[in-house]
Amino acid sequence: MLVERLGNRFKQALRESSDFRGDLSIVVEPEAVVDVARYLRDEEGFDYFLYGTAVDWPARDPRFTVVWEVRSLANKTRVRIKTTAAMPDPHAPSLTAVWPAANWHERETWDLLGITFDGHPDPRRILMPQTWEGHPLRKDYVSFGEPVIFSDQKLEGLEPDAIRG
Amino acid sequence: MAETRIKQEPFGPGPAQEPLGPEHEPPTEWMELNMGPQHPSTHGVLRVRLKLDGEVVRDADADIGYLHTGFEKSFEDKTYTQGITFSDRMDYLAPPINNVGFVMSVEKLMEIDVPPRAQAIRVMMMELARIASHELWLGTAGLDLGVYSGFFYAWRDRELVLDLNELYSGVRMMTSFTRVGGVAWDLPDGWLEQLQRFINVMPARIDDFESMLTQNPIWRQRLEGVGALSRQDAIETGVTGPMLRGSGVDYDVRKAFPYCGYEQYDFNVPLGSNGDCYDRYRVRVQEMRESLKILQQALDTLPSGPWLTNNRKVALPPRSELSKSMESVIHHFRLVSEGFKGPVGDVYAFVESPRGELGFYLVSDGTNKPYRMKVRPPSFCNLQPLKKLVQGVLLADVIAIMGSMDFILGDVDR
Amino acid sequence: MGELKLRPVPMPTGRAAGPTPLNALGDNLLTTTLDKVINWGRSSAIWPALFGLACCAIEMMGTVGPRHDLSRFGSELFRASPRQADLMIVSGRVSIKMAPVLRQIYDQMPEPKWVIAMGACASSAGMFNNYAIVQSVDKIVPVDIYLPGCPPRPEALIDAVVKLQRKIRGEPLVKRPA
Hints:
By secondary structure, chain A is an alpha/beta fold. Chain A contains four helices and seven strands. Chain A has one domain (about 1-165): 2-Layer Sandwich (Beta Polymerase, domain 2). By secondary structure, chain B is of the alpha+beta class. Chain B is built from 17 helices and eight strands. The longest helix of chain B is centred in the N-terminal third of the chain and has 30 residues, at about 115-145. Chain B is globular and about 75 Å long. The N and C termini of chain B lie far apart (about 55 Å). In chain C, strand 1, helix 2 (about 55-65) and strand 2 form a beta-alpha-beta unit. In chain C, helix 1 packs antiparallel against helix 5 (about 155-170) and helix 2 packs across helix 5 (about 155-170). The interface between A and B is large, with 35 and 36 residues.
């Protein structure tokens, strides 16, 4: 069993694992993520990088759960590697050295969620303009474009822009 | 007529165009050229900053985000059923496939079974979308390389698929035809006959395309040997779909992890060997033929029965029941006004879109809206190796490489 | 004899120039006929700029395709260079990163130029009321025809182009039944 082997190898660094609806995920201490990743790639055959992202749980501390998922093409299995990153200035190790395909996914996670990846070769914004401030996918980032005024609402005291919306 | 063999001279970059090693000082005469967001050949609003040494590209930096729409943020704000309409607009060349991927992630999360007829309808719509998308790809990638008539052939065929879409869902492109637990409507009368006519007509039309392009010496010279991605590189850079299969990696989600009943259908997965643009072209054309095979089988073995699950907690009851049963009315009201709640957890569901593996990573916190819906777009992953692929090629080859990647910016930027 | 009051003759520029720069000569038989001829010429061969952004661009391609053929109505070619185009069909959602580019392309088009906001996203941001999409392209460029739909059918785009042609010729957009 993969989880057993990981547990034996990494002991304390493997905080928990779960198998929800057939998806295996492991939660790893941030310091051990790169080692776990290398182990998975070299010895367990997880060669294909799927995606990397993060989830923002403002009520929790640490706030962010950083997620990467990789697949083994030969064995047809998947594993989801999770770690956590805390405010302020959330950090996570970059897996670009292990799986080069992680490059753009980590750039996107930095852009939209503000998680700095240590060791990333090219930490720039990728989807938002370079001069944008803020990280849109965070839960405290208000996203509406324009308030929509319906016909039964009062129009006084609103800026012209709002009226046109 | 005697068969003439066309001797193919090897056509590749000469010694002056080899990629420079790290010991080389970049000379200051490299010109930076902006292939701007508004460009006929970038297949959308992609900006590529090229560093050119004469006509040879030394470096490229793809600048994306010009179509960033905030889909993932929008998904967090909408119930699961409302999100289906949003999912169409991501990969807008094959919207039915986005729809299926989206609801598959919800169905996986909530462990909902889909009736076999709904699965067959989903398969048929998906394969039609695959054919339409590959046709459009052929048309536009050809247009970039000068095949002006191919564009019109492609649209002639694509219009047939759009007619079928419209007959089924009322909309040509953005079908939004799935619901959690099945599909929204049953097939209308005459749809199956029209599909059969489509299947009868298409092989000859694909042959038309092939006869125009496959052995065409200009087409071969433009595409053979260009943008070759080795098998190891393809896996490392995370590309997917025909790009991966063109490099010889046998990975198609429909075969490796069958969904929606794909295991019942008999079809092949075409593989390339060199990983160059020509192989990817051959893979896609062959995929169109395989899709026709699947369509014929789905049509012949279409099961009867319900097209939406009976689980009233997630699927709307049929309208005929509303006048008879109070419970149905309550279910209907609850589903329409607030939707249904999922369990806490996270799942990853994936489908094979014409561009590759389209995945939806859904994190749910127990409410009626997704907490986080991350889309794993195939085009985003396919565009990453652009920098590596264009090193040392001529500028015109950059167009051919970008064409063969078949990315769509709606998917890349979301 | 009193002063000879010369009637002030403003020379408006840009869009305010109206259909013909011969406004300065006032309306007489020559200029109105010339107006009509110039407008007829301009409306009969509107060449759009290639400005496909998103899904509406696919339907725009469909409009150029063999079934609904836009070149029947004069739009024979879509010009890649904005300097050679006179119509910008904004087809698709305009993100904030793309907005300055759109304005630059619009500015690069020479007068006279027209804009069709194709689709719900260009007309009013469509379904995307969020941080990333400009809420209607008329915040950036002046729009002549708004075309709703998500995406609008090719026939609808042809209708928009025909209405634009009528607008250019100075006719009413909707022909009243006799």
